[in-house]
Amino acid sequence: MNDKEIILKLENISKTFYGTHALTNVNFEVRKGEIHALLGENGAGKSTLLNILSGAFPSDSGDIYLCGKKINIKTPLEAKKLGINKVSQELQLIPELSVGQNICLGSEPMSKLLKTIHWSKLHQQANRILSMLGADFESRDPVSGLSTAQMQIVEIAKALKEKSVVLALDEPTSSLTFVEIERLFKILKELRNSGTAIIYVTHRLDEVFEIADRVTVLRDGKYMGTFNVKEVSKSFLIKLMVGREIAEEIRPTLKKNIGEVILEVRDVPSKGNFKASFYLRKGEILGFAGLVGAGRTELIRKIFGADFRKGGIIFLRNKKIKIKSPRDAVRNGIAFLPEDRKRQGFVPLLTNCSNICLPQLPSLSLFGIMRRNKMAKRAFEVINALRIVPPDIEKPTRDLSGGNQQKVVLGKWLSPKYQIMIFDEPTRGIDVGAKAEIHKLMHDLASEGRSIIMISSELSEILLMSDRIIVMREGKIMGELMREEASEEKLLKLAMGVA
């Protein structure tokens, strides 16, 4: 290919935040009709590069060329007018509006006579895109009632509605299941064939080899190289991303120390008219698999007391307990890591110290007054144990990379008091290095005798981590598989209701 086929070119892009170099003289180009993967650890500068491209904020230096013409993108609206659209990793929806209103926001179809919004046409346009993506909800549904995964589909639909010269996707599949991912990939390949230049940011290396033509790697804000996907290996890319080799995770041998039943759930109302019953043993990792909308998160949130539960019985160590709120669950030694860590896992304005110590405030206080020395000691213990970077207890958690934010959320619950831990999409949106660390920590916790419930949309993660797997479909438990008999094919059949 020659320069005439280059649609987008970024030259010597640099960006600094509060003295920290997020990008340093980065060069990047995308050709017409290609899917170009952008890789790097959390904090490598991928999202910063896309934010500059989409007009969220300017670069400190460097130039951007679109179709050979130098451009200056000052706002997201200017980027859209140029045909540059982005699917953000962070959900940017208005909960008070409907799905269709969010999808068509800023480009609503207007009635010619009355010059008002043509509502029926708006919902038709939105439903057409939702149908392409295989969504299980409609344009008129309120965004406030959607799950995180469904909101991710709305974010993708927003970008697909616009005609794009360049389409940038930042972790678009982080909360989607295999079926939704396949549909998205089909659409992206069609866009590529029509000439759209696509930038694809992901932490899932398998996706790079499945869909991308070329790949660019960033490390610590610096450009490490661009390669044809067919000419590189997964291990080569990992080493380039992290500066070291990470051993491929091997499925551990079956645990010998799984003990007695510690938690039993009976007839808890699930999605639809179904009721769910299951048990969890001491030292066990119990995986929950299923498609988006299967009802896994809804069920677990009811058990934790985060959502209202009408009926059902919960036993802890053979004793019936009442859980009407998260406080009740925490008092009974149950911890919960939600799938949306930024909205539900930590308080953005608080420091690492405050977020880590939140569940333990009563024991870290005296007569209602927080003891800062005890809090600092606890926070340092967690930061050192989990290798949180930077190791700064006074840094706001919102300023950390995704992987380190997840470590802070996990660190809240490391006290021995919490013997049952619920992980909802524990490695969503984090890089390969942090993912391996969290997997190791989960295995270590289970080996110590803690019991873990893990929801994951990644079949490979379910198979790698689980001792036993429950598969759900539309609120119903379709089956249960022991780790030695589980396979992707069996899980898929159960999740899709195929006999």
Give the CATH topology of the largest domain: Rossmann fold
| Proportion of helical residues | 25-40%
Strand content: 25-35%
Provide the structure class: alpha/beta
Mean of pLDDT: 90
Distance between the termini: 48 Å
CATH class of the largest domain: Alpha Beta
Number of helices: 17
Second rung of CATH, namely the architecture of the largest domain? 3-Layer(aba) Sandwich
Shape: globular
- What is the strand arrangement across the widest sheet? 6-7-8-3-9-10
Largest sheet geometry = 6 strands, mixed
Write up this protein.
By secondary structure, this protein is an alpha/beta fold. It has three domains: 3-242, Rossmann fold (3-Layer(aba) Sandwich), CATH 3.40.50; 248-346 and 415-499, 3-Layer(aba) Sandwich (Rossmann fold); 349-411, no CATH class. 32% of the residues lie in helices and 25% in strands. It has helices spanning 46-53, 76-81, 99-103, 119-132, 148-161, 178-193, 205-211, 234-242, 296-304, 326-331, 341-345, 352-357, 372-386, 402-411, 432-447, 459-465, 488-495, and strands at residues 6-17, 20-31, 35-39, 61-66, 69-71, 84-87, 166-170, 197-201, 214-219, 222-228, 261-269, 275-281, 285-290, 313-316, 319-321, 334-337, 365-366, 369-370, 420-424, 451-455, 468-473, 476-482. It has a six-stranded mixed beta sheet, sandwiched between helices.
Summarize the helices and strands and which ones pair or pack:
Blueprint: E1 6-17, E2 20-31, E3 35-39, H1 46-53, E4 61-66, E5 69-71, H2 76-81, E6 84-87, H3 99-103, H4 119-132, H5 148-161, E7 166-170, H6 178-193, E8 197-201, H7 205-211, E9 214-219, E10 222-228, H8 234-242, E11 261-269, E12 275-281, E13 285-290, H9 296-304, E14 313-316, E15 319-321, H10 326-331, E16 334-337, H11 341-345, H12 352-357, E17 365-366, E18 369-370, H13 372-386, H14 402-411, E19 420-424, H15 432-447, E20 451-455, H16 459-465, E21 468-473, E22 476-482, H17 488-495
Parallel strand pairs: 3-8, 3-9, 6-7, 7-8, 13-20, 13-21, 16-19, 19-20
Antiparallel strand pairs: 1-2, 1-4, 4-5, 9-10, 11-12, 11-14, 14-15, 17-18, 21-22
Helix pairs in contact: 4-5
